[in-house]
Structures are given as structure tokens and as C-alpha cells.
């Protein structure tokens, strides 16, 4: 449409210092024709930054396939333009996959910094109840809790979307049993609508949501 045409023209003309673009757009043929193929643009391009690069490997299948196609950029952008690839989650096998998909040289400079956080600790506890009952999550609502403010803000990551919803239903029932408003407990995953996602994010920031059951889809929001 007219807005996108004008936007692409402004990008090519160098009116922006940074251009933030999704994998779906940056790998598209339309963006290639309108922007990446223009010497006026590529002559000004200083680097290509790919943040959350682990998504290239973890999301590049059926969920967000265009992540796996980001390597196309290497052939569409002058070879003297460096790629800066960043992530806090790049174990060796994921790094190797990302390196392969992006076509990065084995001699590429690698900077690894510790992500240790003094306020974060890992612990593991054995389940005492069946997985279906979700009873092991009952501790999230303390025995003395009588209002949402008494519940610590918690993100509970689940492997499957249905698990998010089932666990949320269980916690809401337990909250209702002690007269705590159930809207302080919610779920968030890729199938949640965009408007609802934005609403959940805002409520989480305000502390109105105390327990959020989620998949990896929420991770970058919190980061």
C-alpha cells in the first residue's frame, strides 16, 4: 500500500539510522526488490544484527519457518557488511545450527559472556502428585493468600499450549476457592490473539496478573 511504499523509499534514502524488521519481511522477495537490491541502501548499510538468534534453530521449523531462511540475507547483502548475531541461549549444538543456517564462517569472532545472575537460582523438586492433577502447582497460591497482592508474580513455562490452559484452569479454581479474583491468573502462547497478548503484557507489567502460564512465546516480552 501507499504507506509501505513510502516507508521503503525512506529506508532506501537513508532517513533511518536503524531499521527493525521481522524475518518474514526481510526474507521476502518484495523487500529484496524494494530495498536490499538498491545500491543507495546497501552502500549505507554498516551491519546486520540478528537478536534472539537461537530462534533461527528453535523456531525455524513449522512455527516461524522464515527464521531458518535468514541465511538468504548473506547472498543479498554485500560481503563486506558484517553480521552481528546475539543470543543468551546458544549452547554448542544450537550455535552450530545457527552458524550453518546463516552461512557464517568458522573463523567468525565469537564473544561469550556469562549469563549468571545472583538473584536467580535453579532448583528441582520431585512431583508428589499426578501430572494430570496439576496439584504440584498448588503452592503458587500461598496458604495465607487472600488477595492477588499476596501471590508472588510467577511465570510458569509449559512445553505445550494445552498444558498452559489446563494449568491455568486449575489455578483459577483454587483461587476461586479462597475468594481470590481469577483474572489475576492467565495463560499466554502463540495461539493467543495479538490484542489479547498486548493486554496480558500490560497487565503483567502493572502487576495485575500474578501467575502467567506460558510457552517460549512470552520469553522475549519479559527480556
From TrEMBL:
Helicase ATP-binding domain boundaries: 1-108
Matches recorded under Gene3D superfamilies: P-loop containing nucleotide triphosphate hydrolases (3.40.50.300)
EC number, as in UniProt: 5.6.2.4
InterPro entries: Helicase_ATP-bd, P-loop_NTPase
Catalytic activity: Couples ATP hydrolysis with the unwinding of duplex DNA by translocating in the 3'-5' direction
Catalytic EC class: isomerase
One GO BP: double-strand break repair via homologous recombination
GO CC list: chromosome; cytoplasm
Gene Ontology MF term list: 3'-5' DNA helicase activity; DNA binding; four-way junction helicase activity; hydrolase activity
Family: Belongs to the helicase family. RecQ subfamily.
Protein name in the entry: DNA 3'-5' helicase
Keywords: DNA-binding, Hydrolase, Isomerase
Amino acid at each position: 500500500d501507499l504507506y509501505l511504499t513510502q516507508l521503503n523509499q525512506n529506508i532506501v534514502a537513508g532517513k533511518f539510522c536503524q531499521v527493525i524488521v521481522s524475518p518474514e519481511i526481510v526474507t521476502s522477495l518484495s523487500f529484496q526488490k524494494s530495498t536490499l537490491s538498491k545500491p543507495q541502501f546497501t552502500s549505507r548499510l554498516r551491519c546486520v544484527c540478528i537478536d534472539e538468534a537461537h530462534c533461527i534453530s528453535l523456531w525455524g521449523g513449522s512455527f516461524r519457518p522464515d527464521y531458518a531462511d535468514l541465511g538468504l540475507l548473506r547472498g543479498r547483502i554485500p560481503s563486506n557488511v558484517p553480521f552481528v548475531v546475539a543470543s543468551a541461549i546458544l549452547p554448542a549444538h544450537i550455535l552450530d545450527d545457527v552458524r550453518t543456517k546463516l552461512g557464517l564462517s568458522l573463523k567468525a569472532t565469537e564473544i561469550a559472556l556469562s549469563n549468571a545472575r545472583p538473584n536467580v537460582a535453579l532448583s528441582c523438586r520431585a512431583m508428589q502428585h499426578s501430572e494430570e492433577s496439576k496439584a504440584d502447582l498448588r503452592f503458587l497460591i500461598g496458604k495465607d493468600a487472600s488477595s492477588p497482592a499476596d501471590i508472588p508474580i510467577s511465570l510458569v513455562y509449559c512445553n505445550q499450549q494445552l498444558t498452559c490452559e489446563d494449568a491455568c484452569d486449575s489455578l483459577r479454581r483454587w483461587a476461586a476457592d479462597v475468594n481470590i479474583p481469577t483474572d489475576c491468573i492467565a495463560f499466554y502462547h502463540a495461539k493467543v490473539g495479538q490484542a489479547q497478548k498486548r493486554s496480558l503484557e500490560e497487565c503483567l507489567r502493572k502487576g495485575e496478573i500474578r501467575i502467567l502460564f506460558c510457552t517460549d512465546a512470552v520469553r522475549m516480552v519479559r527480556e
